[in-house]
Amino acid sequence: MSSMNRTSALASVIATLAVAVVAYFIPVAAGAERGKAPRPAGHATPTTKDAHWVNTWTAMPQLTEPANMPPPPFTQGDRVLADTTLRQTVRVSVGGRYTRIRLSNAFGGTNLPITSVSLARPKDGKAGVSSVVPGSERPVTFGGQPGIDIPKGAQAVSDPLDFPFQPGTNLTLTLYLADGQASGSITSHPGSRTTSYMLAGDHLDDTDLPGATAVDHWYFISGVESWSRPTTGAAVMLGDSLTDGRGSTTNMNDRWPDQLLDRLRSQPATSEIGVLNQAAGGNRLLHDGLGPNGLARLDRDVLAQSGVRWLIVFEGINDIPGATTDSAGKQITADLITGYQQIITRAHAQGIRVYGATLTPFGGNGYDDAAGIHESSRQAVNEWIRTSGRFDAVIDFDKVVRDPQNPRRLSPVYDVGDHLHLNPTGYRALADAVPVKLFKQTTIPPEFPLADAG
Fold first, then answer.
1. How many CB atoms lie within 10 A of CB 208?
2. Are β-strands 196-200 and 213-215 bridged in parallel, bridged antiparallel, or unpaired?
3. Cis before residue 70, ω within 30 degrees of 0?
4. Which pLDDT score, from 0 to 100, does residue 75 have?
């Protein structure tokens, strides 16, 4: 081959590689239509040098209980949501220009065929509404295609979508399933405290869904990511119903993580902190209950989330009632402490700081036993959280919401009425108890294995 030909061939290879590299960093077009090739991107995606993906919203995936399945006719034997449009709203924490959507089939009994998806802005910016702002709808694609077949037990992440949104705002996700899921086992988050809508037929592009069936659950959606600045990071709350928001107001986003987000956004130093609620009612740290146990889901719900730098552990209260004798109570206490240490070690290995929250009172609730075994266990666990030095910091939720006159009980001002869960004012007290200084951009301390031996 002549020198000129070799030079020409080399130039051709370099040009091909350059096109491939550029193409790698350009998102799939926001304007792709169902059944059509996506339109070219209107704007180039920021390079990886000055941004990264950060989760801005999450919901813990769960196996849907029979009572929380879509109502008839949307559940028909072993087929769910066939020829159905499903519209759901979520409140993001940090903002951005580019976003990706995560859908989950973690607990589906079969593959989950998603026909098409769109992202829009809800009418008046509200949560739990069926209407979207006309013209705000954008098709979501997966590998350039309008839909995706999600394998059993897997999740799907969409292509990047050019869809600017502000922090703390609500977004509307609409899914259309032509065939539905051919299984009685589907993935959802029952405790959404947010209203969703389902309507027969393909109404993906409709601005409203008149006559739709309303349910207070999320189905299949598990995360929203934002293409964010390097200084942006996320904090995960690992917990149970007290973090999932039992006792909060439907469609008002007044769980304690939501109210913490409002605090963080009000201060410039913490305005770029994502708040990710990875909690579910009835969840336990050590054993499966409503959803996998906290130790089992740590990898999926914390370590695998984008941009996580902090973790608040507020879980274990549902494990304690399993004890019926003093020895059993001591064993549960020891097991919870071991579980916390496992979480700390595993999170630290990924560069994540871990903060421990003390367990709040349940005196007067069914969790409280006459012999005081459960209360003794709670007190022992809280003493370890406060004094062991194993957590990077301690958030004393117990101290904040207990009744000063009867520390075994919640303050009546915060009690929703069942002596276990909090009202929105109580959740505000928890949010206010979290020091914003905990979210500084600092590295974690080194582990000291010898310290654990004692």
1. 15
2. antiparallel
3. no
4. 98
Q: Answer for the pair 281, 65: CB distance below 8 angstroms, yes or no.
A: no
Look up residue 379 and give its amino acid: Q
Return the structure tokens found at 413.
Answer: 């001002």
In the 3-class helix/strand/coil scheme, how is the chain assigned residue by residue?
Answer: CCHHHHHHHHHHHHHHHHHHHHHHCCCCCCCCCCCCCCCCCCCCCCCCCCCEEEEEEECCCEECCHHHCCCCCCEECCEECCCEEEEEEEECCCCEEEEEEEEECCCCCCCEEECEEEEECEHHHCCCCCCECCCCCEEECECCECCEEECCCCEEECCCEEEEECCCCEEEEEEEECCCECCCCCEEECCCCCCEEEEECCCCCCCCCCCCEEECCEECEEEEEEEECCCCEEEEEEECHHHHCCCCCCCCCCCHHHHHHHHHHCCHHHCCEEEEEEECCCCCCCCCECECCHHHHHHHHHHCCCCEEEEEEECCCCCHHHCCCHHHHHHHHHHHHHHHHHHHHHHHCCCCEEEEECCCCCCCCCCCCCCCHHHHHHHHHHHHHHHCCCCCEEECHHHHHEECCEEEEECCCCECCCCCCECHHHHHHHHHCCCHHHHCCCCCCCCCHHHHHC
Alpha carbon 444 to chain centroid, angstroms? 23
Residues 226 and 58 sit within 8 Å (Cβ to Cβ): no
pTM: 0.89
Q: In the structure encoding, which two tokens stand for residue 50, read together? A: 């000055």
Phi-psi group of 143: left, alpha or beta (phi > 0 → left; psi -120 to 50 → alpha; rest → beta): left
Query: How far is the C-alpha of 224 from the C-alpha of 92, rounded, in Å?
Result: 8
Torsion of CA 71, 77, 78, 80, to 10 degrees: -30
How many other β-carbons are positioned within 10 Å of the β-carbon of residue 339?
Answer: 21
Q: Give φ, ψ of 297 to 5 degrees.
A: -95, 5
Under 8 Å between Cβ of 228 and 96: yes
Q: Per residue in 165-205, pLDDT tens?
A: 999 999 999 999 999 999 999 999 999 999 999 999 999 99
User: How many Å apart are CA 168 and CA 158, to the nearest integer?
Assistant: 21
Pick left, alpha or beta for residue 222 (phi over 0 → left; psi -120 to 50 → alpha; otherwise beta): alpha
On whether the CB atoms of residues 135 and 92 are closer than 8 A, the answer is no
Q: Is-contact 232 296, C-beta < 8 A? A: no
Tokens in use for 212?
């739709």
- The C-alpha angle 112, 148, 234, rounded to 5 degrees, equals 90
Q: What tens digit of pLDDT does each residue of 282-313 get?
A: 999 999 988 999 999 999 999 999 999 999 99
